[in-house]
């Protein structure tokens, strides 16, 4: 509603929400919704708000322009913030620009708007609107905000824009500030706006159209990241706008913006970097490490410095709705610009922070005590599988029975037809040792030859494996499943952030028993506890590969998860694009592959060669009683069996001799009885045989006896 008084304009707003506004309100009527603003005559008329709208439109086309290397393949998203209860002419400028940008979005045309773009509208109409659960959106690229006070701008940012799913602190913010009472304070107001946006919302790419009169504007930018005085707040002017026209002209303003954009770089800046000590990515000296090499490459290319601090703090986890622990808490409190130290992408972290492009790759698995070395005698038995030994024993038994059958059927000497002797001969031939068997029949000889060749091959195969077994007897049963670790009662755990990998239905038993205390962090002293079987730790393979205990602990053959690495910074970090560009170039030219290959070569081949050289002086294998436990065991078992057999034979022979003595006594008694009876003679001849005593001869005497018998026979 426009009044006829040329000095006063009365604008009536319908109050949609109860929010504090500046004006004259009827306090006695609760339903009063009329606000009256008093403006001077020079701020009236359509020329005022059309000039502001034209300045905003002209400068937005310059400020939102991006270099070809930074352009997206998709259409850009423009967020137009619509604030209610603005004073005039800010309210008319907002409505006029909204109408203009809607027309441009629906029907773009040359020469300036040759591309389509998406437009979104944010409003402070109702602060109770919930933005959570509206689904994922593409982040906004450009923001246009028209305000009349710094306090209104902060409220718009805090209560509306930050809570939107498309909130992007790294976008470009264009703010038009028009307040008739603050036209003589451009530097102070601009400093407050730039400082609040940086410290409260981490927004750095900000341009301000500050109204220093009803139709004139100063074009100001935040020159905080300058290659001259980096990280010092400086309000820089890139031009002016008079009566809707850029001054002195569009080309000069565009050139000033090009200088500003080119100067907005990390060159000569110092960033605060925090990292976790996590070898091999960041070593304890905070100088060496794989990621330290990548950081050094970025520093040389982008020409910036770092104030680097290393600590044993972990990455950190969310604590409460918005607070974070660890190094991410320092990033949240602006103590660190970005952090790294073997961090992998995490969805929970990605919702609140930004991450660089990924590089390298590492796998995580469980580490447990290496199984004890197998005794040498068990290694000798373990040369053949159990079923192989069973097969050899069955063949031995079959050979024994076949041998016994042949010597029984064939006319072999009676002495060699004993069952025990055939078993001994079969065993002796099977293990390729000399025997006293001399077969007479051809069938027995062929069987003897076949069994001998079989024994030679078996012994040769066993002996060829025995040499390597002496050098490396191997290990006993190795725990290689987490279920076995749980049954053994060994606690397991690792980094706190790695626990999230087990938060699913199948692995909840791991999630509930997972230890996150410092005793389970992958460190040398904790790996010593793993070496002695006190705990099981989830660690990355690259860390344990370069550890001195790499050969003393056992890694599960499967990977729990594999993931690339990344740097993490606060959302809105202004130079993420430049850092990602360096990472992509390093990946394209193969620098990451070279770093990974060098690391694996140095920590596998070279380390093992150095260990072999160190042990070359005492690599001679000396046989000890440990290697002879098997033969000693066989000897003891055989001796015990022989002793038991001896006792059995004594018992058996004792009983037989007792029976013989009883029979002899009975015979003597009967003989005596017969003698007393004097049986009659039966007229039969009785032969009395006298057995000569056994005479033992030496070989010489035996030869003489044989010669005498030969001469007698010749005569």
TrEMBL record:
Q: Where's it found, cell-wise?
A: Cell membrane
Quote the SUPFAM superfamilies the UniProt record gives.
Answer: Periplasmic binding protein-like II (SSF53850)
Q: Which Gene3D superfamilies match?
A: Periplasmic binding protein-like II
Signal sequence span is 1-23
For this UniProt record, give its keywords in alphabetical order, as a comma-separated list: Cell membrane, Glycoprotein, Membrane, Receptor, Signal, Transmembrane, Transmembrane helix
- Positions of transmembrane segments: 386-407, 632-652
What InterPro entries is this protein classified in?
A: Insect_Ionotropic_Sensory_Rcpt
Lineage: superkingdom: Eukaryota
Task: Specify the protein's topology with respect to the membrane.
Answer: Multi-pass membrane protein
**One Gene Ontology cellular component annotation held by this UniProt entry:** plasma membrane
Main localisation: membrane
Query: What's this protein's name?
Result: Ionotropic glutamate receptor C-terminal domain-containing protein
**Species this chain originates from:** Drosophila erecta
Species classification: Eukaryota, Metazoa, Ecdysozoa, Arthropoda, Hexapoda
């Amino acid at each position: 509603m426009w009044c006829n008084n040329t000095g006063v304009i009365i604008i009536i707003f319908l109050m949609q929400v109860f929010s504090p506004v500046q004006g004259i309100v009827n306090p006695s009527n609760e339903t009063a919704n009329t606000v009256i603003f008093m403006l001077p005559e020079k701020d009236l008329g359509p020329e005022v708000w059309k000039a502001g709208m034209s300045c905003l439109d002209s400068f937005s086309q310059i400020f939102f322009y991006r270099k070809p290397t930074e352009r997206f393949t998709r259409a850009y998203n423009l967020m137009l913030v619509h604030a209610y209860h603005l004073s005039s002419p800010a309210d008319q400028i907002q409505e006029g620009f909204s109408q203009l940008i809607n027309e441009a979005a629906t029907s773009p045309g040359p020469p300036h708007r040759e591309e389509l773009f998406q437009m979104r509208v944010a409003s402070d109409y109702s602060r109770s609107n919930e933005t959570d659960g509206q689904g994922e959106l593409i982040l906004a690229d450009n923001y246009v905000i028209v305000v009349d006070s710094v306090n209104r701008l902060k409220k718009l940012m805090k209560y509306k824009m930050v809570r939107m799913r498309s909130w992007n602190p790294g976008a470009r913010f264009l703010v038009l500030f028009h307040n008739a009472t603050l036209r003589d304070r451009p530097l102070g107001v601009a400093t407050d706006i730039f400082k609040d946006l940086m410290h409260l919302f981490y927004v750095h790419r900000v341009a301000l159209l500050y109204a220093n009169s009803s139709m004139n504007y100063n074009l100001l930018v935040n020159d905080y990241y300058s290659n001259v005085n980096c990280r010092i707040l400086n309000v820089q002017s890139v031009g002016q706008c008079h009566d809707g026209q850029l001054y002195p002209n569009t080309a000069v303003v565009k050139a000033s913006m090009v200088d500003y954009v080119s100067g907005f770089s990390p060159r000569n800046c110092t960033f605060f970097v925090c990292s976790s000590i996590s070898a091999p990515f960041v070593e304890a000296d905070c100088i060496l490490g794989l990621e330290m090499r990548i950081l050094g490459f970025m520093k040389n290319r982008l020409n910036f410095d770092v104030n680097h601090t290393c600590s044993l703090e972990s990455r950190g986890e969310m604590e409460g709705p918005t607070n974070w622990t660890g190094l991410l808490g320092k990033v949240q409190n602006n103590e660190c610009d970005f952090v790294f130290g073997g961090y992998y992408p995490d969805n929970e972290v990605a919702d609140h922070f930004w991450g660089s492009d990924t590089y390298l790759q590492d796998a995580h698995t469980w580490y447990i005590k290496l199984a004890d070395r197998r005794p040498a005698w068990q290694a000798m038995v373990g040369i053949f599988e159990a079923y192989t030994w069973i097969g050899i024993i069955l063949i031995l038994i079959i050979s024994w029975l076949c041998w016994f059958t042949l010597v029984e059927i064939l006319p072999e000497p009676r002495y060699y037809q004993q069952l025990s002797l055939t078993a001994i001969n079969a065993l002796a031939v099977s293990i390729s040792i000399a025997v006293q068997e001399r077969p007479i029949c051809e069938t027995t000889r062929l069987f003897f030859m076949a069994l001998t060749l079989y024994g030679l091959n078996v012994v040769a195969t066993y002996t060829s494996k025995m040499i390597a077994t002496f050098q490396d007897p191997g290990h006993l049963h190795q725990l290689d499943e987490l279920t076995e670790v749980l049954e053994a009662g060994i606690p397991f755990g690792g980094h706190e952030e790695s626990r999230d990998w087990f938060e699913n239905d199948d692995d909840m038993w791991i999630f509930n028993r997972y230890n996150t205390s410092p005793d389970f962090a992958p460190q040398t002293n904790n790996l010593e506890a793993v070496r002695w079987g006190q705990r099981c730790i989830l660690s990355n393979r690259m860390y344990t590969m370069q550890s001195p205990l790499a050969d003393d602990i056992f890694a599960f053959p499967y990977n729990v998860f594999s993931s690339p690495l990344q740097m993490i910074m606060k959302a809105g970090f202004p130079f993420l694009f430049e850092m990602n560009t360096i990472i992509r170039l390093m990946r394209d030219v193969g620098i990451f592959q070279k770093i990974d290959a060098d690391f694996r070569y140095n920590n596998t081949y070279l380390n093992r060669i150095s260990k072999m050289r160190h042990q070359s002086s005492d690599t001679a294998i000396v046989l000890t009683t440990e290697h002879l436990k098997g033969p000693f065991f066989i000897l003891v078992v055989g001796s015990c069996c022989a002793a038991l057999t001896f006792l059995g034979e004594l018992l058996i022979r004792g009983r037989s001799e007792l029976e013989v003595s009883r029979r002899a006594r009975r015979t003597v008694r009967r003989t005596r009885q017969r003698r007393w009876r004097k049986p009659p003679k039966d007229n039969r001849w009785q032969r009395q045989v006298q057995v000569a005593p056994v005479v033992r001869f030496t070989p010489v005497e035996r030869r003489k006896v044989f010669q005498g018998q030969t001469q007698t026979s010749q005569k």
